[in-house]
Design goal:
The chain has four helices and eight strands. 30% of the residues lie in helices and 22% in strands. It has an eight-stranded mixed sheet, sandwiched between helices. The chain has two domains: 34 residues; 175 residues, Beta Barrel (L,D-transpeptidase catalytic domain-like). The chain is α+β, with helices and mostly antiparallel strands.
Length: 213
C-alpha cells in the first residue's frame, strides 16, 4: 500500500494539473514549447458566404473612401485560431485569393478562453472594426505595418501600438490546436507577412483590413 507521502504527492499532482488546465497555462505552454499538429480545415459554405457578403460591404466602403479597390484583407474572428481566418480577397474577381492563420488578443490573461474584444489602451484585446494599413517599419518583431482604426470600436489602435506583424509562434499552415495569442495585434506567420508586403507596398491607395466576428 502506498505510503502517506506518496499519496500526498499524487494528490498534489492531480490538483496542479487541474489548475493548469483550467487556467490555460498548460495550453499556452504546449503551443509555445511543443508546437501544434498540422491540420486542414475546410471553410464551410456558410463561412464562405459570410466572407463574400463582408467583401461586398468592404467594396462599398472602399469606393466611398478612395481606398484600393482591387483587394482587401478580411479577418473572421469567429473561426478557430488554428484555422485560416486571415483572407486576402480579390474584389475585382469576387474571389478568395489567399488565406492564413492569425492571432487574436489575450486581453492580458495567461490564456484567453473564447473571445473578448476591447479598445482600451493597455487592454491587450483584439479590436473589431475596419483599419487602414499604414507605413511599414522595423519594430520589436521585425517588419510591421502601422494600423489606423476607422471605427469607434478600434479608434485607439494607433495609440495601443496595434500593428500588423509576424511572429515565429504562428504556423505557416493550418493546425488542429489553437495557436499563440497576442496583445491585440493581428499577428501572422513570417512567410505570410512577406506575401502581404508587396501587396501593401505597391498599392497606390490605402489597403483596407477589416476584423469582424
Amino acid at each position: 500500500m502506498p505510503g502517506p507521502k506518496i499519496l500526498l504527492l499524487f494528490f498534489l499532482l492531480i490538483l496542479s494539473f487541474a489548475w493548469l488546465s483550467s487556467s490555460g497555462i498548460w495550453k499556452r505552454t504546449k503551443v509555445s514549447w511543443l508546437g501544434s499538429t498540422p491540420g486542414k480545415h475546410k471553410l464551410t459554405a456558410t463561412a464562405m458566404e459570410k466572407l463574400r457578403l463582408k467583401a461586398e460591404d468592404a467594396s462599398s466602403f472602399i469606393k466611398q473612401k478612395n481606398y484600393n479597390d482591387d483587394i482587401c484583407f478580411l479577418i473572421d474572428m469567429s473561426l478557430s485560431s488554428g484555422q485560416n481566418r486571415f483572407f486576402v480577397y480579390d474584389l475585382k474577381k469576387d474571389t478568395l485569393q489567399n488565406s492564413a492563420l492569425v492571432t487574436h488578443g489575450r486581453c492580458n490573461e495567461e490564456w484567453l478562453i473564447g473571445r473578448r474584444y476591447g479598445n482600451t489602451v493597455g487592454g491587450g484585446c483584439t479590436s473589431l472594426g475596419k483599419y487602414r494599413i499604414g507605413y511599414s517599419y522595423n519594430g520589436k518583431f521585425g517588419l510591421a505595418f502601422k494600423l489606423y482604426g476607422l471605427d469607434k470600436t478600434n479608434d485607439n489602435a494607433f495609440a495601443r501600438f496595434v500593428v500588423l506583424h509576424a511572429h515565429d509562434c504562428v504556423p505557416e499552415t493550418e493546425v488542429t490546436d489553437d495557436i499563440c495569442q497576442s496583445d491585440g495585434c493581428p499577428t501572422v506567420a513570417p512567410g505570410f507577412l512577406q506575401q502581404l508586403k508587396p501587396v501593401i507596398d505597391h498599392s497606390k491607395k490605402p489597403v483596407l483590413l477589416w476584423i469582424f466576428e
